[in-house]
Amino acid sequence: MPLSKLEVSIEINRPIAEVIAYVDDNINDPMWQSSILESEKKTDGSPCVGTIYHIKEKFLGRVIEQDWVVTARNPDGSQWAAKSTTGPFPMAATMSFEATQTGTLVKRTLSVDVGRFFKVATPVVAHIARRELEMDFNNLKELLEAEA
């Protein structure tokens, strides 16, 4: 099963608490993540281990739906991990937020096993997905820095 692990990061010139609050609010997902069509939080309360999200997204030209569950999370939201529990292929993600002198360093890791779903070579899929993640982070930076 081909697995791609992608890592992206960006520095955003906003305080860490503001960046975490924006990313935590799934209503913002379609605004900064170009592939997200809909994001619905299925459990009540603040994000924590066990929180479930239903995501409808366009991934590499196909519309897919997946449920994601938060598998780890620091109390302040500065680090979390989640994995897909439904959908056409397994995915796992981590996010971390670190205060810097000028704002917040945001890092994301995404692991995707697309072997059963896409017939193209894994390196091509990885390249396209990396470009999409980098675009998403640039969108996040522009949105949050414009609010300054």
**Which parts are unreliable, with pLDDT below 50 for 5 consecutive residues or more?**
none
| General shape | globular
Q: What proportion of the residues form beta strands (DSSP E)?
A: 35-45%
What is the helix/strand order?
EHHEEEEEEH
Note the gap between the termini: 44 Å
Computed structural class: alpha+beta
Q: Please give the count of helices.
A: 3
Radius of gyration equals 15 Å
What is the count of β-strands?
7
Largest sheet: 7 strands, antiparallel
Can you walk through the features of this model?
It is a single chain. The protein is of the alpha+beta class and 148 residues long. It has three helices and seven strands, in the order βααββββββα. It has helices at residues 16-24, 29-32, 122-146; strands spanning 4-12, 36-41, 52-59, 62-73, 79-84, 91-99, 104-112. The protein has a seven-stranded antiparallel sheet. The chain is globular, with a radius of gyration of 15 Å. The N and C termini lie far apart (44 Å).
